[in-house]
Amino acid sequence: MSIARRNGKSFLIAVVLLAHLCGPLLRANWRAAVVSLTGKLASELREAVRQIAEASGLAAEIEVRASPVPGFILGQQGTRVDILAADRSSGHAIGIDLGVCDETGLLENGQLYNSLLSATGGRDGRVFSISIRGDSEIFERIRERRESPAVHWTEYCAEPDVDLEDDGRLPRPSKPPIRG
Length: 180
What we know:
Shape: globular
Helix content: 25-40%
Strand content: 15-25%
Number of helices: 4
Number of strands: 6
CATH topology: Rossmann fold
Number of domains: 1
Order of helices and strands: HEHEEEEHEH
Distance between the termini: 58 Å
Largest sheet: 6 strands, mixed
CATH class: Alpha Beta
Strand order of the largest sheet: 2-3-4-1-5-6
Structural class: alpha/beta
CATH superfamily: P-loop containing nucleotide triphosphate hydrolases
């Protein structure tokens, strides 16, 4: 899914994870891994999950741990989300039901993305790639496969030839002159 900056990608990821950790998509021993570009961004994703849980009255249903950095989240019935950073050495010898790749369009580490794909194989899992458009080769390969039944591609953006000066509003009718 490609969404422009500052449009809630982190909180969308948080809601999806909470739905699996303690919400309507809860399934015993469900496991996920979330990969972000840096340790700072990965920590922000962990905090987004905590904030949404608190705002939704679900804080008691999960346990958010910051150590080892960037952390992990435990949910109900043995559910778990590992938070990983692409700028660190991260092991992916785990089986996961969901791999979330934050900012795939900026990710340069193809090996890391392939590790996420591999980690979902043993559990018939899925990878959720969310990003700004970026120029990553990984994101472009996913876009090229958008017609495949194994890929769902959703991109929210302006057309390449759109006039950036046009705010989309219709011209306002001119007011008749006031005559005194």
